[in-house]
Design a protein that fits this description.
The chain is an alpha/beta fold. The chain is 52% helix and 11% strand. The chain contains 14 helices and 8 strands. The strands form 2 sheets. A 6-stranded parallel β-sheet has the order 1-8-5-4-2-3, with helices on both faces. A two-stranded antiparallel sheet has the order 6-7. Helix 4 (94-107) links the parallel strand 4 and strand 5. Helix 6 runs parallel beside helix 10 (252-268), helix 7 packs parallel to helix 11 and helix 9 (236-248) packs antiparallel against helix 10. The radius of gyration is 20 Å and the shape is globular. Residues 1-7 have low confidence and may be disordered. Nicotinamide-adenine-dinucleotide is lined by residues 39, 41-42, 66-67, 92-96, 98, 116-117, 119-121, 124, 126-128, 154-155, 157-158, 166, 229, 252-253.
Length: 351
């Protein structure tokens, strides 16, 4: 199993019911009082963690928000200081983890993250923040969480549609890692492991969303895919998703799910051998169509038009996505990207 942490990696645990051990984990970090973080929607989960912490709970800040706005992070830091907390516990998806990272960036307090989606942010030293509507991303060892507790029971509440898009968001990290310029044998093996966990686990989760062993498998996939995102650079797929998400305010995971087969297909023409693990894992004869078939079987969203993107938006998106050069295995051409976006807009399988 490749998900054994290296010495400098966070402490990573998998297991049903792990959330009940938070007080021990706080003590293990040498801390006394934790501020619990969540979105407003997951406030009940934050309260349950505070209860499990007992006298180690300093308070709850339940205002985590998509794209980590700096004003919310600054308020959370004030709250951390007011409550005397010396560590944070994030329970939630990438938005809540983002808030924990933003607090750690500003204060260097240790973080315990209890992920409830497959976004994988907990496994990276990367933080995206928004200020005056502009999102910037930084990489800093300070934002890498110290402890990650993967409790599959917590993911059973993730709605089916989000389960699928969040899983494909994770698979996208792994697929792009296969052709990253700075890939290593280890990052490739981790990417393959992550994709395999989702190929095996996701169909079983959809059959029975409360299947704990299948949920754990998908969480192992999330960790592997997240870790690989922290190790290597991303290319066309992530660039397109950021451009589309930022320009048209699209849902993060849905955008990843829709673009993935098309971005992979675009690059498969240049590096078919590097992308061969995708067909080995998901079946079929070509990686883009294989991912499209898997997404279709999982009932994932397939078409940008269903997210409210118009045909007119595609020209603008193609311009933006081709403006600044970035490393990518297949040459980036305006016509090629416009064609890719057309297929992603209509939702047809890449050909
Ligand atoms: P999210 O955290 O925004 O969650 C979406 C909604 O689902 C929220 O309302 C949340 O409370 C709810 N939710 C989460 N888990 C749930 C559960 N188990 N049951 C019921 N409701 C649940 O979504 P996300 O896709 O996890 O995260 C997206 C964000 O993470 C984006 O801002 C993205 O940029 C960031 N991200 C960062 C990195 C990184 O390395 N920095 C990596 C991946 C994603």
């Amino acid at each position: 199993m490749l998900t054994q942490p290296a010495p400098s990696s966070p402490r990573v645990r998998f297991g049903a019911g792990l959330r009940h051990t938070v007080a021990e984990e706080v003590a293990r970090l040498g801390c006394k009082h934790a501020l619990v973080l969540s979105t407003p929607q997951q406030c009940d989960s934050a309260m349950a963690i505070a209860e499990a912490l007992s006298d180690k709970a300093a308070g709850i800040f339940a205002r985590a928000t998509m794209h980590t706005p700096v004003e919310i992070s600054d308020e959370a830091v004030t709250h951390l200081r007011d409550t005397g907390a010396d560590c944070v516990i994030a329970i939630g998806g990438g938005s809540t983890t983002g808030l924990a990272k933003a607090i750690a960036l500003r204060t260097d307090v240790p973080q315990i993250v209890i992920p409830t989606t497959y976004a994988g942010s907990e496994a990276t030293p990367i933080l995206g923040q928004t200020e005056n509507g502009i999102k910037t991303t930084l990489t800093d060892a300070k934002v890498q969480p110290e402890t990650i507790l993967y409790d599959p029971e917590l993911v059973t509440s993730l709605p089916t549609a989000m389960t699928v898009t969040s899983a494909l968001n994770a698979v996208a990290h792994a697929a792009e890692a296969l052709y990253a310029e700075n890939r290593t044998n280890h990052s490739t093996a981790l990417a393959v492991e992550g994709m395999q966990h989702f190929a095996d686990g996701l169909p079983a989760v959809l059959e029975n969303p409360t299947n704990i062993s299948a949920r754990e498998k998908t969480l192992r996939g999330a960790y592997a895919c997240g870790a690989v995102l922290g190790q290597v650079g991303m290319a066309l797929h992530h660039k397109l998703c950021h451009t589309l998400g930022g320009s048209f305010d699209l849902p993060h995971a849905d955008t990843h799910a829709i673009i993935l087969p098309h971005a992979v297909h675009y690059n498969a023409q240049a590096v078919p051998d590097l992308l061969k693990p995708v067909t080995d894992i998901f079946g079929g004869t070509a990686p883009g169509p294989a991912l499209h078939a898997f997404a279709t079987k999982m009932n994932a969203p397939l078409a940008l038009q269903d997210l409210g993107v118009t045909q007119d938006n595609l020209d603008n998106a193609a311009d933006l996505a081709t403006q600044k050069p970035y490393p990518n295995p297949a040459p980036i051409t305006r016509d090629g990207i416009r064609q890719l976006l057309q297929a992603a807009w209509s939702g047809t399988a890449p050909t």
